[in-house]
Amino acid sequence: MKGPLFYSKILLFGEYGIIKDSKGLSIPYNFYNGALKVDENPSEAAQKSNRSLKRFADYLENLQQEKPELVQFNLKELKEDIEKGMYFDSSIPQGYGVGSSGALVAAIYDEYAVDKITVLENLTREKLLKLKKIFGEMESFFHGKSSGLDPLNSYLSIPILINSKDNIEPAGIPSQTVNGKGAVFLLDSGSVGETAPMVNIFMENMKQEPFRKMLKDQFVKHTDACVDDFLNGDVKSLFGNIKKLSHVVLDNFKPMIPAQFHKLWKHGIETNDYYLKLCGSGGGGYILGFTEDIEKARKALKDYRLEVVYNF
């Protein structure tokens, strides 16, 4: 058995901000993917994944009992498949901010949900919000509180625009310029980031009035402007706003930026060769970069591995 593929995602804009109703823009990233699978001779990784699925199935059983109106699963079939050794075969790096648990959640929902909302039907706002709610509850098993956006992106495999908590829609993003010099890229920090501790730091900071004010007046404002610029294809304005956003993150989200990247982050802002921002919750994993000249960025970041995800 081998189920359909579900892809990783990149939240281009909106990390942390969407908790406080900023806009957000999430796109599928087809470089990484995962699928449910059963093997004759499972590897150690497959066995580990299988054990995790066992715990996840128990969690889903509880969820179904507590919120029967939200979602129902074919638990008997799920548990039988897990007994047969089913696991999630995935190339998506864990703790890198590209949605490894999101793809797994999407795969389980797709295979085992009863009366599931499918990708082929007319996706009204109500249906999108219901899916997001279901996925949020499911993904909470992996890292405490989840918005449900990662699995939604993985499940639908289309860009999603978050206008606010209760207003999300499929988004058309400008098509890529094949030989464009500008690029969005991923920078490998070389370490894994844990989502829950980072979100806890953020929630603690939110108790402070100056932090809340900064979030509303600067972080959310610049994030919203970046989303609008990106969707409108206004590259000049976009880079002005990304620079401001990068600055705000460096000044106010230091714990989420691995220490060895503080200098590199600052260097980008000072030289305009590239601008860095968080990819997911930070703390490690990937860092997201934007540049108007990818060759310049490659030179400046020659000691690091860059993966281009979008060309302007």
Provide a descriptive summary of the structure in words:
- The protein is of the alpha+beta class and 312 residues long.
- 46% of the residues lie in helices and 18% in strands.
- It has ten helices and nine strands.
- Strands 1, 2, 3, 4 and 5 form a five-stranded antiparallel beta sheet that branches. A four-stranded antiparallel beta sheet has the order 7-8-6-9.
- β4 and β5 (167-170) form a beta hairpin.
- α3 (100-112) crosses α5 (149-156).
- It starts with 5 loop residues before the first strand and ends with a strand.
- The relative contact order is 0.16.
- The mean pLDDT is 94.
Order of helices and strands: EEHHEHHHEEEHHHHEEHE
Low-pLDDT regions:
none
Rg, nearest Å: 20 Å
The description of the largest β-sheet is: 5 strands, antiparallel
Termini Cα gap: 40 Å
Shape: globular
Proportion of β residues?
Answer: 15-25%
Structure summary, number of beta strands: 9
Category from helices, strands and their pairing: alpha+beta
- Total count of helical runs of at least 4 residues: 10
Kindly state the mean pLDDT as a whole number?
94
Helix content: 40-55%
Which characteristics define this entry?
312 residues, alpha+beta, 5-stranded antiparallel β-sheet, 4-stranded antiparallel β-sheet, 10 helices, 9 strands, 46% helix, globular
